[in-house]
Design brief:
With about 575 residues, chain A is α/β, with parallel strands linked by helices. Chain A is built from 21 helices and 20 strands. The longest helix of chain B is centred in the first third of the chain and has 15 residues, at about 1-15. In chain B, a hairpin with a 4-residue loop joins strand 2 (about 45-55) and strand 3 (about 60-65). The chains are: A alpha/beta (about 575), B alpha+beta (about 100).
Chain lengths: ~575, ~100
């Protein structure tokens, strides 16, 4: 069979089981779009036309984070590729399996500063797990399956594949198709290390489990919970692991670190054994590293050997798949009672609750909003966030109960993540529902809502994706916590820069409801003087289809407690002098 | 006099550095992956020598790197690179072997 590189690429993606991908066409990748449009497959790939390559990248993120499988985004050469970089870097820091395929100028023009030429290989090199510049159509047969294998195996991550236009146009004879790529098994951790860890967990007096995003990637959330209950160890979670433990589990202490509850950070100070599972001792979690868990021996389970000892030297490092290690650990562990220690955890939790005004008094306080939204929606509702105060309020107050229900940019902290990620999540849910029904695109039952919590600062960074959302008519609700500021910047200026509010307050804030309507989406603004704003909010969410809900919040509301950047986690600011206006 | 200076510089470098040998896939980009890793993780890389071996599908690289507490982290990050197939210590080599290559 004689095929062009573009057709080969399309067939390879179909063979990978890719149903949906997101991107934007341009000169260099047009042959691929032509091939995509002429597929004779029974289940052709649906292309989601993003309105900015970064939007396409984050749509793929949302898709990958819901399914746990590599998702694909496309961009053309030059600005298409540079626009995609933020989404690729985000996937690298949050270990998201992504295959980013970029068009490139024809090989004969590489190095000539051709139109829309940029060194995509060089630009993606430091922000990917691996990257390729494909030099012939035949190479695609090897590179594409390999890209999926690398993205999904071990610690997941992004792989960039740069494909020059002449490679897409080259015709070759294909006789044998390669097997699709995919996750390869992780070598098991040695038994003696598992035994040593079991021994430590039995003999520790005050153990704490510190869960990271790796627990969710490994599908090990239930096992981590079982371990916590088997040995009666309280559990703390990073931002990336929220959802691994149900929020109301009696052993769950919530997020640790910069915006933890005071009691959570204090508990870590008292621990004598901290078992980190799929966590990487990020500075937002540890605070001043030298003083993090100073009294505790640290044990660390991670799939990435380089994470062991990168920040903190553990006395025991176990490299392997978290689910496999936890299963083998549970085989060795008897139930252990720790009444005093669990009592201490409960005492600390009770002593330092999340401070917020009562709902009746201040229904639109962000903490009250998060709790109300969390209660109103089913517990498997996917929540995406942007980055800033609203993100931390969601982390502190949203009642997460299942893994993969919080999608947030944790490592890179990318404002503009939330809306496209919500679109990707809704597409993943739709595809999963369709494949269960075996009747593609049937509209039997209404799709569950995906909620994007954003801020009036963040939402503007990828606002153009409202056009994509309008086109797809997905059940995404964008809820904007509107304080007319870059709130977390304003908060830091208040706390650490002598209230010098430089470039953090907006003098012009768009009418987001009208903006939504301009994009063809229902827009609702909740007025500050609404007599029952939560009822208005519930009604806005209950109506079908995409919507944007703009909610005014206090300009001066702060995310508290807060550990000043660089300080030890025990030094938490609990309240600020400024009260709500 | 210059010889003495060179020798003493070599001696100091030898005390602070160590040599890693890598087996890598030989294709354009491999060197960028290796040197890029050192640059972005702020590891010291003092010298590098690389040449194809066997049928040319792989190369061997010798890296003169700082002998610091983070060396183990350097090795682990190198081992993660897809194009790096093997990382080992060459305690039989030191800075003078690199300096000796220069005219």
């Amino acid at each position: 069979m004689h095929l062009t590189g573009a057709h080969i690429l399309r067939i390879l993606l179909e063979r990978q089981g890719i149903r949906t991908l997101a991107g934007m066409p341009g000169g260099a990748n047009l042959p691929f779009y032509d091939a995509l449009h002429s597929s004779e497959s029974a289940q052709p790939i649906e292309h989601i036309l993003a309105r900015h390559e970064q939007g396409g990248g984050f749509i793929a993120h949302g898709y990958a984070r819901v399914t746990g499988r590599a998702a694909v985004c496309l961009a053309t050469s030059g600005p298409g590729a540079t626009n995609l970089l933020t989404a690729i870097a985000d996937a690298q820091l949050d270990s998201v399996p992504l295959v980013a395929i970029t068009g490139q100028v024809p090989q004969a023009l590489i190095g000539t500063d051709a139109f829309q030429e940029v060194d995509t290989y060089g630009l993606t090199l430091p922000i990917t797990k691996h990257n390729f510049l494909v030099r012939s159509a035949a190479e695609l047969l090897e590179t594409i399956p390999l890209a999926f294998t690398i993205a999904e195996s071990g610690r997941p991550g992004p792989v960039a594949v740069d494909v020059p236009k002449d490679v897409l146009n080259e015709r070759i004879e294909v006789t044998v198709w390669p097997a699709p790529g995919g996750r390869e098994p992780t070598p098991p951790c040695a038994d003696d290390l598992v035994a040593a860890l079991a021994h430590q967990l039995v003999h520790a007096q005050r153990p704490v489990l510190y869960l990271g995003g790796g627990v969710i990637s490994a599908g090990a959330a239930d096992l981590a919970r079982e371990l916590a209950h088997r040995v009666n160890a309280p559990v703390v979670s990073t931002l990336m692991a929220l959802g691994a433990m149900p929020c109301d589990d009696p052993l769950f202490m919530g997020m640790l670190g910069m915006h933890a509850l005071k009691g959570t950070n204090f508990l870590l100070e008292e621990a004598d054994l901290v078992l980190a599972i799929g966590a990487r001792f990020d500075d937002r979690a540890t605070g001043k590293v030298a003083e993090f868990c100073a009294r505790a021996a640290i044990a660390h389970i991670d799939i990435d050997r380089a994470e062991i000892g990168k920040i903190k030297n553990p006395f025991l490092g176990l490299v392997g798949d978290a689910a496999d290690i936890l299963r083998r650990l549970l085989d060795r562990l008897p139930p252990i009672e720790r009444r005093r220690w669990c009592g201490r955890a409960a005492e600390l939790r009770a002593a330092y609750p999340l401070a917020h005004p009562p709902r009746a008094e201040d229904p639109l306080h962000p903490v009250n909003l998060c709790r109300f939204l969390g209660e109103s929606l089913p517990s498997d509702t996917i929540v995406t966030t942007d980055v800033g105060q609203h993100q931390m309020w969601v982390a502190q107050a949203w009642p997460f109960r299942q893994p993969r229900t919080l999608l947030t940019s944790g490592g890179l902290g990318t404002m503009g993540f939330g809306l496209p990620a919500a679109i990707g999540a809704a597409l993943a849910r739709r595809d999963a529902a369709n494949s269960e029904l075996q009747t593609p695109n049937s509209a039997t039952s209404p799709q569950p809502r995906v909620v994007c919590i954003s801020g009036d600062g963040s939402i503007l960074l990828n606002i153009q994706e409202l056009a994509t959302l309008a086109e797809l008519d997905l059940p995404v609700a964008v809820v904007i916590f509107n304080n007319g500021s870059l709130g977390l910047v304003r908060q830091q200026q208040q706390l650490f820069y002598g209230q010098n509010y430089a470039a953090s307050r907006f003098h012009a804030v768009p009418d987001f409801a009208a903006l939504a309507q301009a994009f063809g989406i229902r827009g609702v603004r909740i007025e500050a003087d609404d007599r029952d704003p939560l009822a208005t909010l519930a009604a806005a969410l209950a109506a079908r289809g995409p919507c944007v809900i703009d909610i005014p919040i206090h300009e001066t509301a702060n995310v508290l407690p807060m550990v000043p950047p660089g300080a030890a986690n025990r030094n938490m600011i609990a309240e600020t002098a400024l009260t709500h206006a | 006099m210059p010889d003495t200076a060179l020798l003493s510089a070599t001696a100091t470098a030898a005390a602070r550095s160590t040599v890693l040998e890598l087996l890598v896939r030989n294709h354009p980009g491999t060197m960028s992956h290796i040197t890029g890793l050192f640059a972005r993780r702020a590891f010291n890389l003092d010298a590098i020598v690389c040449a194809p071996v066997g049928d040319g599908t792989t190369s061997r690289a010798l890296l003169l790197v700082g002998d610091e507490p983070r060396l183990e982290q350097v090795e682990r990050q190198l081992a993660k690179l897809y194009d790096v197939l093997e990382v080992r210590h060459r305690t039989d080599l030191n800075a003078s072997h690199f300096v000796g290559l220069l005219p």
